[in-house]
Every structure is written in structure tokens, then in C-alpha cells.
Design goal:
The structure is a homodimer.
Chain A: H1 9-16, H2 20-27, H3 37-49, H4 56-63, E1 68-73, H5 77-82, H6 86-99, E2 103-108, H7 119-124, E3 130-134, H8 141-149, E4 153-155, E5 166-169, H9 171-183, E6 190-193, H10 201-216, E7 226-227, H11 237-244, E8 252-255, H12 258-270, E9 280-282, E10 299-301, H13 304-319, E11 328-331, E12 334-336
Parallel strand pairs in A: 1-2, 1-3, 3-4, 5-11, 6-7, 6-8, 8-9
Antiparallel strand pairs in A: 10-12
Helix pairs in contact in A: 1-2, 1-3, 6-13, 9-10, 11-12
The first copy, chain A, binds a DNA duplex (30 and 30 nucleotides) through helix 2 and helix 4.
DNA sequence: TTCGCCAACTAACGCGCGTTACTAACATTT
DNA sequence: AAATGTTAGTAACGCGCGTTAGTTGGCGAA
């Protein structure tokens, strides 16, 4: 039961009666090392007998690469559970990364923490070869610093960091489509509850899409119609009540997240109002449950798996030195029109 | 922009005019190495000037520990997104693990893959010091093998592996409570749709709780009332339709997962039936959206964060050699009675 | 015969660090 | 004055592996 000491190259060398160098040459299939076939076979056989597996850490030290990339999620406990597609993102990253022989290290940072971010340590200690940063703040000095130091780094959405490679969904376009969908049906008083505080890029981008759609429709931007949500279902309730309490409440609300929309919808129902007759609702993210709500939630669909996959691919290409053509990727979104936005008839 | 070579201990030694050994002693605060205060300060100052950070890989090699634990998730793309609380579990593990200076490596295995599981490589290569295995199959030969080899390992639910440490929610008790809740209101014809195929321990345990509750109530177990779900919302629809098509359909369904329940509820509504008047529904997991469904879903609440946290704690205590008292932990669940199970009145 | 060449290896260094010996200089005791 | 510490270090080995620069013995060609 005691932890067995695993065989090393040295053990193989001794057992096969050759030098460790020869073992290394055989196992790594070095072409221009003239190893005769029978020596080769003998070494391989001994390796098999000893159940040899190379020590990854030693290998990493020798090569100077950790063969590991870090995925940084900036989320509190609530957000993590909430952000239902974080699992999809993780899976997307994992698949491409492991296909190239890399491993995936996950590290959460407390968004409320100040001072040097802990993920800087990950790259300083060479524990990871590169970083994929999920849901970054709009201005994150460490990201810029690491990038300037030459650390391979890719962020999921970062408008402020012009030269840092990024892969993101087209939040602006998605939000634009959501709002335009309402305006085109004649609604002009449209509220907005964000998915997150404004220092998150996704939140800002979605709000910008909202504003742009209003502008293009000749509707003035009214700050009294905009409230901040913060990831969770609960965070949508109070803003929604505030909107309903307005002297002239909106006839539609665009909510930057399906999860936040849950709380908002709950608040609307609690007032005894009817969706979509009294007010229509549009979400964002197209989480699995959205189509099962009563009425089913109109929302903006996005591809979380691809977000992870493309982020991983971009990061790997940077690590390998073959810098990608497109340093900034924007994935398209798609509106899913459902029951919460029936034709406007007031 | 070129990747800076980071300073090593050797660099500090040269700059401070001492040997590398002395640097090591100072930085590691070795007590019985008599380093005079001014030498100590000089070394520390140089280290700061050179922005020294120890190389984690070299350190790991020297110490013979990876300072990393692996979290294995056995899930396909669909399941990963679906299993909304995987994020919570990850976060729980991460918090305890990082508090002890460890890092978290995540690795997904394809549940349909055969042959030696890829996670075996993780421990053979010494890339991780221990493994936390989420949602294991009922009988997983590699787990037993690794454990017998002395690998620190903890599983989230594994009835068949008697001597492998585990941390799990009390699925049997949860399911029992769910079913008893119905029986006590007079219902006797209760269907069951599992959360996953029967080779998953959680699925089997929940079904066992269902059967036990029936038995204790003098109700015969009827296999025609039991169907297999498989993680996703979609997987709940067909089984539900089959139940409704029975000559004598059940008056209640216990579904092993809220996600699967989504599809089932959809199927019930599609038939124009009313919940809970025509049929009552009970889920499992208490996912965030469940309370927002119409009617709100009665379900079994469980603590995903604690699942991760306690799993991590147990694993770390095994790694550190202080084997835990309780090798098998069962976390309690709690029923949340909501609208899908109104009082039975037929 | 002798020189060069090639096959078949191996010695030795480096990756960055922990750790155990061991040493040289100086101070204290007997 | 000699023996015994004590202080302030350092040399050297080990962790497991990649990799370069050799080394040896045999053989064909000049």
C-alpha cells in the first residue's frame, strides 16, 4: 500500500545495461542517434517491464515549459454557480488544450480583492505557460503588464486593452439585436438591467449595444431606465421593481443575462403583471432553462463552448510562437424569439 | 516584448556576493543556518531588486511534490453545461486547495471512452499529487487500482469501492424524503425518471431511495414506472411521455434531476395536463431556476460547494498523511416543497 | 600500414532548487 | 598552549530528464 517508487530512466539504463543517454534516445525516438534495432528493442522491453512513465515535472524543468495553461475565472461563489455556461467554456478550453498535450489549471480570483492579482504568481513561478482570462474587468492593469512582459495571454472580452489578444462574443451586436427587435414592433420605452457591474466589459458592451439601438431608432437614452444587475437571479428583482415603480414604466426590458432575468420576471409576476401583455422581457445568454419558463424567455443565444475552444486555440498559437492572424475574435450571437416578447399591441 | 529571463537563485548569489546555498537558506528562512542579519538583508534586497520569484517546477522537482491536485469530471459537453453546480463544486475544491498552497488541475474524461482512463497518466507522470473524482461510475477499475497503489484519491460517491474515501450527498435519503413526501399525502402510484444511466452511483442511489420509500409504505416496486434519464433536459421528455401513455399513468413523478425535470415538465404541459392537479412533480438538486418555474418545482436541495470543499479537505489530509477519521462522508439533503406538489385531492 | 570514417555508444553539463556535508576562521574553555 | 566550540559560510549531491560533445572500436581506402 505504500507509495511505490516509480522507475526512472536510470533504472531502465541499469537493467538494460546501457547508459541513461541511450535510454533517452530510444524513448524519444531521436532520429540521428544510431541505435541498432536490438538495443532499441531491449530498452523498450525493459521500459515496459518496469512500467516506466516519464516524470512530467522533471521533463518540464528540462524543457523549460510547464505544458499547462491557466484559466482564470473572476467570480465569487454565487456567480460561479450562476454562470451556467462556465462549464461549457471550461470544456471547450480543455478539449483543444489537451489535444496538444497541455493541461488546464483553473484559478478563481476574488473580484473584490485588491492589490496584485494572485494569477500573476502563476506565470511568475512558471507554473503555467499562458493565461486565458475569463470575464475581465474593463481595465485590469495586471493583464496589460503581463502581456507587455511577453506572457502569452488571451482574454474573453477586453475593450480597453487594444493590443491584448481577445476572443469574445459580439455583445454589442447581440444587445443591439435584442433592443431593435422591440423597437421594430413599435415599442419606444425600453428599460435595461445589466448582467454585471459596469466595470465588467460584457456589461458595458451590452449596454452600448442597447444605447446604439436606441440611438439608431431616434430614441433618447434615459438613465432612469437603466439599472445594474450583478450576476445572480436575486440581483434582478430590485431593479425591476424600481422600473415598475416609475411614473411612466417601460413597456419592455432588456436584461443582460437570463439569470438576472429570473429575478426580474419573478418581480413582475409578484406585481400581478402579465408578460408579455403588460411588459415584454428579453434576456441574454440563452441558458438551458430559458425556453422552459412561462412564458418562454426571448433571449440572445451565444456559443460558450466555442468561446472556450477558440480562446484555447488562440492561446496555444501564441505560446507556440505562431501568432494568430486575427488578434481579436468576435463570435456572432443570435436572437431566440419566444413568448416573453409577443407582438406589441398597446 | 521578448520574454524576459527571470532571475534565479544563482543570479542573486552572484549579485550579493554569496553562494547559492546561502541564498536558499535566507529565502527559506532556515533557522539553524547562522546567517548574520546584514548578510540576510543584503540577500533579501538583491532578491527584491531582481524581482525574484522561485521557479515552481524546479521546486516541485526538488521536493518531489507537484503541489497540484486533479479534479476529474466525467462528462460530455452536454452534461457539463447542464450540471449547473459543477461550478460550485470546482469553487469549493479550489478554495480549500489553494489555501494550502496547492493548485487545481481540471481534467474531463469522455464517459464513453474505453480502455485505461486518461487520468491515470496524471498521477503516473506525477503531474498531480492526488485525485478528486467527480461523478464516478459505479464500478471503475482504475479508481480501485490507483487507490491500491497508494495514490491519494477521493471520490464523490462510490458505493462499490468500500475502502476508497468518499464524500457524497446522501442521495438515498434525499430520494427517500422526496417519495415519502408524496406517499404521506396519499399518492401510491409514483413514477421515477433517473438523473443518469444506472451505472452512475448517484443514479442508483437515488433509485434505491425511491424503492425504499415505496417498500416502507407497502407499495410494490413496479419497473414499468421507472425510466432512465441522462443528464440533459431533453432526456426527460420521452420517458415522461411514456409514463403518461401508460393505461394507468402515475399521479406523481420523482425525477432524479431538476435539469431532466425540465424536459419532463415540458412534456406534461405539451399534453395539456396541469401540474399539480393532474400530476405532481418532484426534482432533485434544487438548481437556481427551479423556484422560478411555473409552478415552482418541488425538489431536493443539496450543498454543491460543501461537496467540493469537503472533498478537497479530505484529499489534502490524505496527501499530508494525516488520514481522516471519517473515510466516508455523507452530506444531508433537504426537501424544498413548492408548487409542483400541491396537496393530493383525487 | 596508416589514416580517416562511421556505427554505437557514453560522459558531462544544464534546468532551478533543497539539503547535507564539510571547511576555514575565530572565540572560548581547560 | 592545546582542545573545543561557534560562526559564517560553501562545495557537492540529488531530483529526473534533455542534449551536446565527445569517445571507442572496427573497417575500408590510400
Amino acid at each position: 500500500m505504500a507509495r511505490k517508487r516509480r522507475a526512472t530512466m536510470q533504472d531502465i539504463a541499469k537493467a538494460a545495461g546501457v547508459s541513461r543517454t541511450t535510454v533517452s534516445f530510444v524513448l524519444n525516438e531521436i532520429a540521428d542517434a544510431n541505435i541498432p534495432e536490438n538495443t532499441r528493442q531491449r530498452v523498450l522491453q525493459v521500459a515496459r517491464d518496469l512500467d516506466y512513465t516519464p516524470n512530467a515535472i522533471a521533463l518540464n524543468l528540462a524543457r523549460g515549459k510547464a505544458m499547462t495553461v491557466g484559466l482564470i475565472v473572476r467570480q465569487t461563489a454565487e456567480q460561479m454557480s450562476i454562470d451556467a455556461f462556465i462549464g461549457q467554456v471550461i470544456l471547450g478550453v480543455m478539449h483543444v488544450v489537451e489535444a496538444e498535450g497541455y493541461h488546464l489549471l483553473i484559478h478563481a480570483v476574488d473580484p473584490t480583492a485588491s492589490g496584485t492579482q494572485t494569477y500573476v504568481e502563476l506565470v511568475r513561478t512558471r507554473k503555467v505557460d499562458g493565461l486565458l482570462i475569463s470575464s475581465p474587468l474593463a481595465s485590469d492593469p495586471e493583464i496589460k503588464m503581463l502581456h507587455d512582459e511577453g506572457t502569452p495571454i488571451v482574454v474573453h472580452g477586453a475593450a480597453d486593452l487594444a493590443d491584448v489578444p481577445s476572443v469574445d462574443v459580439d455583445n454589442v451586436q447581440g444587445a443591439y439585436a435584442a433592443v431593435k427587435h422591440r423597437v421594430d414592433l413599435g415599442q419606444r420605452r425600453i428599460g435595461h438591467i445589466t448582467n454585471a457591474p459596469f466595470n465588467y466589459t460584457s456589461s458595458r458592451d451590452r449596454c452600448n449595444g442597447y444605447r446604439q439601438a436606441l440611438k439608431d431608432s431616434g430614441i433618447a437614452y434615459d438613465t432612469s431606465l437603466v439599472y445594474e444587475g450583478a450576476f445572480t437571479d436575486d440581483s434582478g428583482a430590485a431593479p425591476m421593481r424600481a422600473l415598475l415603480d416609475l411614473p411612466d414604466p417601460p413597456t419592455a426590458v432588456f436584461i443582460g443575462s437570463d439569470m438576472v432575468a429570473l429575478g426580474a420576471v419573478g418581480a413582475i409576476h409578484a406585481r400581478g403583471l402579465h408578460i408579455p401583455n403588460d411588459i415584454s422581457v428579453i434576456g441574454f445568454d440563452d441558458l438551458t432553462f430559458s425556453q422552459y419558463l412561462q412564458p418562454p424567455l426571448t433571449t440572445i443565444h451565444l456559443p460558450p463552448y466555442d468561446l472556450g475552444r477558440l480562446g484555447g486555440e488562440t492561446l496555444l498559437s501564441i505560446i507556440s510562437g505562431t501568432s494568430p492572424d486575427a488578434q481579436r475574435l468576435l463570435l456572432p450571437t443570435e436572437i431566440r424569439v419566444r413568448g416573453t416578447t409577443a407582438a406589441y399591441s398597446k
